[in-house]
Amino acid sequence: MKVIGVGVPRTGTNSLQLALHALGYKCLHGFDLLDREDVMYKMHSRIVGGGAISWNETLTDFDACCDCPIYVMYDELQKEFPEAKYILTSRTEESWYRSLYSFSRLSSVIALASPFIPFLYDFNNLFLTCFHNYFHESRPMTKEKYLESYRKHNEKMKEIIPKEKLLIFDVREGWEPLCAFLEKPVPNIPFPHVNKGRATAEAKVAEKIKQVIPRPETLQRMACICGGVLFVILGTLLGQSSFILSKVVVPIYAMCAISWYFSTVRRIFTRIPSP
Predict the structure, then answer these.
(1) Distance between CA 12 and CA 20 in Å, rounded?
(2) Largest CA distance in the chain
(3) pLDDT at 273
(4) Phi, psi of 59 (to 5 degrees)
(5) For residues 44 and 126, is the Cβ–Cβ distance under 8 A?
(6) pLDDT single digits (tens) 113-157
(7) Three-state DSSP class for 191?
(8) pLDDT at residue 106 in the model
(9) What whole-number distance in Å separates Cα of residue 255 and Cα of residue 253?
(10) Closest Cα to residue 130, out of 73, 62, 86?
(11) How many Cβ atoms sit within 10 Å of the Cβ of residue 89?
(12) Which of 114, 148, 161, 265 has the fewest C-beta atoms lying within 10 Å of its C-beta?
């Protein structure tokens, strides 16, 4: 491991990853875990399950990493990769909070599909565990408390990482400070200023949703089948005295609810364009 990004999410970590790729590094970003279930589950066992893992083995396919869950495991990574250089991506507090607020809604959408896709549930749980354990020192959380946690993280990185191994980096600065720090020549291409973190994550989640949840017409048939099953079960349980309730009203509501749920989950992600 040569380069470790210790900036919190929404500080330009996606731009940093692309820049590191352009400089010849193979960088793991938190969203890449959607395509690397093996790595995701190893991190999940450590952070959610509380087990022990070898970070060297877990990250063996990469020589750089950033974003979640890297920013919360900096102490273990520092011990396992003592020769690595560290990059603390940062941005103004107000712009970070606006970006964080906008992105946080994606987690709620993922939760709709999570009961039917175990991997997606575990992925979401990993991210939420990192976020809540790190930022939610007290409840209820307010904007000022989030900003305070953001400041504390940045100050802590400056304290524990030797100055000669740490670059405090705003991606708006471009190639020069990054290349000087990593002792790399400046590429003859524009610095990758991107703001597509949410779109990239949504597109990857969409593919997993589509693999599991059928198309709308199939969902309607599923709703009819489920409604029919409820028709028989409730009719038996409630008896003839509740004929209208058990065999007409309840099945209709059940079919509508089931069809709406599955259609909503698929519709939300179907309209998201691929990156």
Answers:
(1) 12
(2) 82
(3) 36
(4) -105, 25
(5) yes
(6) 666 678 888 888 898 888 877 776 655 678 888 899 899 999 999
(7) coil
(8) 65
(9) 6
(10) 73
(11) 25
(12) 148
Helix residue ranges, H only, 168-241: 175-182, 197-212, 216-238
DSSP lists the bridge partners of residue 64 as 3, 27
pTM of the model: 0.76
221, two tokens: 């048939």
Distance (Å, whole) CA 33 – CA 35: 5
The pLDDT of residue 275 is 33
Determine phi and psi for 10, rounding to 5 degrees.
75, 25
Task: For residue range 10-41, list pLDDT tens digits in order.
Answer: 899 999 999 999 999 999 999 899 889 999 99
Place of tokens 């809540």: 132
Q: Report how far apart, in Å, the C-alpha atoms of 25 and of each of 9, 22, 56, 132, 146 are.
A: 20, 7, 16, 30, 32
- pLDDT band for position 44 (cuts 50, 70, 90): very high
Say how far residue 146 (Cα) sits from the centre of its chain.
18
Say whether pLDDT at 216 is over 70.
no
Q: Give the relative orientation of helices 250-270 and 197-212 as an angle to the nearest 10 degrees.
A: 130
DSSP per position, 20-85: HHHTT--EE-GGGGGT-HHHHHHHHHHHTS-----HHHHTTT-SEE-STTGGG-HHHHHHH-TT-E
pLDDT value, residue 151: 94
Q: How far is CA 165 from the centre of its chain?
A: 27
DSSP 9: T
Residue 17: other Cβ atoms inside 10 A = 25
What does residue 198 show for φ and ψ, rounded to 5 degrees?
Answer: -65, -40
Q: What's the CA gap between 166 and 161, in Å, rounded?
A: 6
Q: Apex CA 194: angle with CA 191 and CA 197, to 5°? A: 140
